[in-house]
Amino acid sequence: MLRSAPLDRRGLLGAIGLFVALRGLCVAVLAVFAADRDASLLRILGRSDASWYAGVVTRGYDTAIPLAADGSLLPTNLAFFPLFPGLVAVVDPVLPGGAGTAGIVVAWLCGIGAAAGIYAVGAHVRGRRTGVLLAGLWAVLPHGVVLSMGYTEPLFTGLAAWTLWALLRRSWVAAGALCLLAGLTRPTAAALVATVGLCALVAVVRREDGWRPWVAGALAPLGLLGYIAWVGQRLGSADAYFRVQNDAWKMSYDAGGFTLTTTRDLLTQQGALAYYVTAAVVLVAIGLLVVLATDQVPWPLVVFAGIVVALTFFGAGYYHAKARLLLPAFPLLLPVAAGLAAARRTVLVVVLSVLTAISAGYGVYLTLAWRYSP
User: Fold this and answer.
1) Is residue 374 a part of any domain in this protein?
2) Domains held by the chain: number
3) How many Å separate Cα 316 from the centre of its chain?
4) Does residue 4 lie within any of the structural domains?
5) Are 148 and 367 in contact (CB under 8 A)?
């Protein structure tokens, strides 16, 4: 993990431009289909989880877990971490359209920041061309439509990318501070906390960089642990956050049985397209992780991507969301981006065109045909 030269501005702007162009094209396709159904594009981009975040902005967090008529726990907005709605609350007063529209704008801005961070990592590891293509590939993943919605994936991926870049440059305090913010964004930040902590531990054992790794290791978990503690204080129980996840939202972890059983059932029972695509994405992610681990990239990237894949695979519940949960694992795309960087221009154009068409079409399906959260 050696320090590198400052970021190349031309490459950075190229990555941002490619990300905006590809995502803009996909949203334009969605707008055409939405208009055909006389549906509001803003409403489409602000549905599902995005509406939960908008609710946090307008009504604040619940003071208790809601109860159903039979006494069982209902979903609560306490499962949604505070940094994204906090940013939306800052932007909302200066934009028309309410918190939902503000959430979409914030997500787009965060997506641009994430594309820049992804470029920074790719350029550090494999050069400018790979960095630009890495940002482009991330933009047109099958669940790329989420990057244009009022979701937290763009914000968390951006914080993760810049944290990893800081680690690669041994900018310990910056890595710890960015990881702290990521911990206020999504529970998936556990993967980033573990990565920063392991890097700091290795540096401490090797007696490298003095006090800075200690600070990074201390800062990294504060956001994640702080929100868990706050939920516990709000609900009057130390394990309240885990009750929110396990009992209210029916999300937990097992030894992979839920994922394997659901995937097996897809082979013998008819299922929705979203389930088959999810199964394919999870399988490809595991394959790409194996390739990444043998591709001589800096080990923090492998650790982060591996933990994200593991959290997704071992998660029990919401099978259809697993492909979306893998969006932050952008280092998995590094070998693909490096391969495309070395390919002929014709191959590059064809691959990006096909992936963009798939992402645009599947985004239409997820937002107009699929009833649940993308």
Assistant:
1) no
2) 1
3) 18
4) no
5) no
